[in-house]
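User: Quick one: structure for sequence A, then sequence B.

Assistant: Sequence A:
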Amino acid sequence: MLAARLPGLLPPLERGEALEAAAMAALAGMPDALAEQPPFRAPHHSASVAALVGGGSRPRPGEISLAHQGVLFLDELPEFNRRTLEALREPLEAGRVVIARALHTAQFPARFQLVAAMNPCPCGWRGHPARACACTPDQVARYVGKISGPLLDRIDLHVSLPPSDPDWMSGPPGEPSSPVRERVMGCRRRQMARQGKPNAALAGAELDEHCRMDGEARALLSQAMRRLAGSARALHRALRVARTIADLDGEDMLAARHVAQAVQYRRSGV
């Protein structure tokens, strides 16, 4: 439910982006009118590698290209074939997928936001305050082990959702999407004015230039990366997340609180 609402929080597609998304749909045999809202794709966990990343004797785009400029949602992540999930690693980094065949090679864009969901264990009750988990430690380890470390390393935010309060329906209504979307659009405008691209596209020297930190923030990040044994990729992703958190706060320099929140999202619960 949360993932399906994400496209409504994202900035509307510019005309060039909408044309790219429409072109991918047309190549897949699903012509549609230009849409301002980013696409949302949610393939079933039985999807093959070709269905997810594209393929065929005459290569056609897969789900990751149909989600270009939008959101790809993978529910029940450990139920996907491991080989299928591993095929996501390069497109997540490069923003494109290259399909090579004997006579020709096809390249499709695949710059999407990956959102995935999984249970804490096969029975779904591990850590629940009122229900006992029926899984053995080996079953839990096998279930969680279906998601490789390199794939997890490419997911910026790892969030554990606690069980819902039984009285949640009697609580006050949540915040509508429209004001959240305005904050997101303001954050995006700030990024484009500063560097001409979203924070997700920052790399190398750009991170040093646009992710300036005070001394406390730098010390906290260094300590956290040592404690979590983070890779260079994890460090760069944490910096991009911290930069975005600071943009939402309207701050030019990364403070310790921005870095702490970004690092907290790297503490995977799986």
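Sequence B:
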Amino acid sequence: MLKIYNTLARDKQEFKPITPNSVRMYVCGMTVYDYCHLGHARVMVVFDMVYRWLKASGYDVNYVRNITDIDDKIIKRAAENGESIHTLTQRFIDAMHEDADALGVQRPDHEPRATQYVPQMLTMIEQLEKNGLAYKAADGDVNYAVRKFDGYGKLSGKSLEDLRAGERVEVASDKNDPLDFVLWKHAKDNEADEVKWDSKWGKGRPGWHIECSAMGSELLGNHFDIHGGGADLQFPHHENEIAQSEGAHQCQYVNYWMHNGFVRVDNEKMSKSLGNFFTIREVLKKYDAEVVRFFILRAHYRSPLNYSDQHLDDAKGALTRLYTALKLSPAAVEVDWNEAHAQRFKAAMDDDLNTPEAVAVLFDLANEVNRSQSAQAAAQLRSLAGVLGLLQRDAQQFLQGDSSDGGLDDAAIDAQIEARIAAKKAKNFAEADRIRKELLEAGIVLEDAAQGTSWRRA
């Protein structure tokens, strides 16, 4: 049985969906005012992996990953650029899709944009007001009264007594309590009309937290199975989501909360101020997208992920070893789940999505393929890896790499190989060794076998 570490319970729990054989899952997506960075890459790949495993386990999955397309940062960036918010957000939504597609991330079943669900947000805020959990402040904002919700802090483990004014919350004199957070922001005179909506409290726009509560409830119901996101969202965002949704609907919001770990760069927190902030696009200029996906999946989703060129180089070498076992390029087939490697793979994935152990199984199977040269074992390897979105390309194509970087093209490499073969036939081994060394210096690795010489880029 599948077990998931539930942040709410602080323990691994057996997964029991609300509706048998059906899973409803919501994941907090991107705020689209800039290109996606490595932290976004991890969220996308991790929950794509969860989505794939749930489906491979026989569940009918309804996966929602939202887009925040209205936000203070978005408004500020659009003003700086002198463009409309819609133009800005659409450009970065398109870029996000390009990055996700490159990383082999499947599109979610629903990708709601916050601006499309403002009526549902207003309805929820009105319900909170009726339930005595929301109030309009003197400045025109509508705030959530945190101390009136008994369960506040149950996800993060933070008590109200431990939460101090100014700790990750906005402090404003118009709030009844420093811990209260905004549900509806009153419109400012200098803001564009495209960020203003009518409401019973006057023109304004929704706060960030209410967006996910409203979209999740509208698309998945008031009570659903899984809610995911980065560890940085556990507090206050997800804590506030619980307060809003349970305060409005008077029922449990989510059964299982999943959070992926932070991304660090050379053992330091990724930060623009430290100069170690990388977008997905910058990384993909240096590394194949499947190498990046493999690098992310080699780590357990809850563990910190330490990015460095050394770790990416190591991931590239490891992925190359797996592809080397697939030189016959067998087509993917249905996974034989009764086979020993597949059973170990399944046991690992059912243990809180333990991808490091599942990847270790792939290497064991690759070793078996190399020993036995079994096409059946190779097909099983490709199919099992496909569950993680890996090893689905032509093996020789991956191993040879992309010559678009200005290096030797395929024809030049093949010509060098022919010259080396001729030198060996003429027993001019010094020339043959010179050609091998020259190709190696150019990043081309030759591999001699009974059936001939193949090559790959290092």
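DSSP finds 15 helices and 15 strands in the chain. The chain has a mean pLDDT of 91.

User: Thanks, that's what I needed.
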